[in-house]
Structures are given as C-alpha cells and as structure tokens.
Request: fold
Amino acid sequence: MKRLIISIALLCLSATPLWAQEVVWSGLSEKQQQQLAPYEKQWDQLPAEKRAVILKGLKQWQNMSPDDKKLASKRFKQWQKKTPEQKAKIRARFREFSKMSPAQRKKLQHRKKQFDRLPHDKRQKLRQRWNRMSPKQRQKILKQQRIRNKMHQQRNSR
Reply:
C-alpha cells in the first residue's frame, strides 16, 4: 500500500500540465486536424497554452448536442461581428461579474430573468430610457437601488 501511494505521488509530481505538453500538428488525430484545419499553418507556432485552450474548446464542441452547437455557432458569429471596443466592454463586464460574490451573481441573474420575462415593447422602452440618461442619472438610480437592497436585507435578517 505504501509503495502504491509513493508511486502515485511520484507520478503526480512528474506529470506535466496539459498546456506544457507540446502538441504538434502531426501529433493530432486525423479528426482533430480536420476540425482544426483553419489553424494548420500556424498551429506549431502557437504558444502551448493557446493550443491547450483550443483543444479544450474542441473537446467541449465534440460533446455538445446539435442544438447547443447551433447556438454556439450563432453566438460566435455575433461575437465576430462586434468591434474591438464592444468586445473590450463585454470582457470588462465579465471580469466585474466574476468578482461578484455568489449571492450578488445570483441576484443579478434573477433580475436579468425578470427583465427577460417582460414584454418586448416594455424592455425596449426601459432600454431607451436608460440610454437617454446621463451617467450621473444612472449612478443615482443604481445608488437608490443599492439602498433599497440594503433595507430589504435588513428587514429579512430580523
């Protein structure tokens, strides 16, 4: 038993992370090469970390249902159409979302679902109203909302 534990420990210590493994183009399966054909000319020059991310994405893609693949393709095409500024803004929002506590994220997701349940014309009016506001007006509304949230939390904790 002791030998087995030592062997496993040594194996773990000697194992290299996926991104550190050099996966050259010729080392990919034929199916992987077909699916990653757009990367063929640059594959061996890509950093190992980038190749690992691409391979992970390919594995996820292979495990998706046809409906999920269709949705992912649609979203990817939408992403490609965005300007660098739009992409940067989305990435910044994602970083902010990632920094939130699980409770904050859950609350935000709940509010998004509530918003999505509104009739289309109501959502449009709210978006237009928000877009017409100055940054100062938006901050005021957000501050009022935070105050309401705190009051609600205090009432619920009694």
In short: The longest helix spans residues 135-156. Confidence is low (pLDDT under 50) at residues 1-16.
